[in-house]
Specification:
Length: 395
């Protein structure tokens, strides 16, 4: 069995780490850049909301495009690289545009960056699915996802370290590093083509009902994650720890993601992607329940570690299931829909924050149990996906 897809997955993990770090840097410095450009602070949340709308549209569009390009051309590494270069140039120029070009220049670069950076979300995973043999795919996806998890774990530290830094330095360093890394994508794809023959592209009938259920489940799971990470995690920790300890304690969730995602991925080939989704969805729900019952910091950290690991399982096994579900030739479409639902979840979280409704008595009382209910709902939907998929296969 060729080992190249695993190396490709690790390479993509570095790209995902740099991409996610770029987003963290952007969020940290956006208020400062808006002020320099003369844009009122009230527009900050609206811009972040619009960013998510763009991601929703682009994830779906690029998913369809990746499928079409693959059928017509057979490879698309060059297109990803070209689009990513435009993205990096726009990102690099933001700190200068804020003071030199004013509001129009900064906003133009922001939207160019968001549009073009979407090329680093769905298409690389479609490329990975194109060359990885089916037994290799779960572990390859897990390796690739580690980049996002590592970026998530260092985000609180970046906020502290970069607080008083000139934004031009991190914007330049991150852009240049990402450019140099992405340039190698063409050679990685060429190496994969030389060693591995992609499966022939067929277009069997799409199983619409289980597909719709799978995408709906991803929305439930994504909203559960957004609510827990934004509204529940810190208050739970502050019951037992000081505010100064938070940047260190928040990493426990992502440590669980990084460590447990690998044994979960190895089990996919034994039990199947859909049954595994049911298991990790249920275990994520149980971990969230344990976190609400925790009576000490140690108990809470154990619950958060497990929650991070099982959420990582939902994220990576969900990607694997989407690639399997797409059949040959539709991987991009379903994967794009899966990621777009995660962007919808982020949109809803930002919208809730902007509205201030999260401080209303009704919403505030509901938030602690919301992730439990949503992850339980996602798990039930995963069960329905499995049952309807099996029934359709029998027919």
């Amino acid at each position: 069995m060729p080992k190249i897809p695993y190396y490709a997955a690790l390479y993509l993990a570095v790209i995902q780490f740099l991409f996610a770090t770029t987003w963290t840097i952007y969020v940290i410095f956006l208020p400062q850049l808006l002020a320099q450009a003369g844009i009122e602070a009230q527009w900050l949340g609206r811009i972040l909301l619009l960013d998510q709308v763009i991601f929703i549209v682009m994830d779906i569009s690029l998913g369809f495009a990746a499928d079409k390009v693959r059928r017509v051309i057979g490879n698309f590494g060059g297109l990803i690289v070209g689009t990513s270069l435009i993205s990096c140039l726009a990102f690099l120029a933001m700190p200068w545009a804020a003071s030199a070009l004013g509001a129009a220049g900064l906003l133009g670069l922001i939207f160019i960056w968001v549009f073009t950076s979407s090329a680093l979300r769905v298409p690389p995973l479609v490329m990975l699915g194109q060359y990885a043999a089916k037994p290799q795919l779960p572990l390859a996806v897990a390796l690739q996802a580690v980049g996002l998890a590592v970026a998530g774990s260092i985000a609180p530290y970046l906020g502290m370290v970069l607080a008083n830094t000139d934004p031009r330095l991190p914007f330049v360093l991150n852009s240049v590093t990402l450019v140099l890394t992405v340039l190698g994508l063409i050679y990685v794809e060429r190496s994969l083509r030389q060693q591995i023959t992609p499966a022939a592209i067929e277009m069997p009938p799409l199983q619409k009902t289980p597909t719709v259920l799978l995408i709906t489940a991803s929305l439930f799971a994504g909203v559960g994650f957004q609510i827990y990470s934004s509204f529940n995690s810190q208050p739970q920790l502050l019951q037992f720890a000081s505010k100064e300890q938070l940047p260190y304690l928040l990493t426990v969730f992502w440590m669980g993601f990084n460590l447990l995602v690998f044994p979960v991925s190895l089990l996919v080939n034994r039990v199947g992607a859909l049954p595994m989704l049911i298991v990790v969805g249920a275990l994520t729900t149980l971990s969230a329940l344990l976190a609400t019952w925790a009576g000490s910091l140690e108990q809470l950290l154990i619950a958060q570690f497990l929650m991070g690991g099982f959420w990582g399982g939902v994220f990576t096994v969900g990607i694997t299931a989407a690639l399997f579900f797409g059949n040959t030739g539709r991987e991009g479409m379903i994967l794009g829909l899966w990621f777009s639902m995660l962007s919808v979840a982020a949109f809803l979280r930002i919208g809730l924050l902007l509205s201030g409704e999260h401080n209303s008595p009704v919403i505030k009382s509901w938030l602690p149990t919301a992730p439990i209910v949503l992850w339980a709902g996602a798990s039930l939907l995963f069960v329905l996906v499995w049952l309807t998929y099996k029934r359709a296969r029998v027919r």
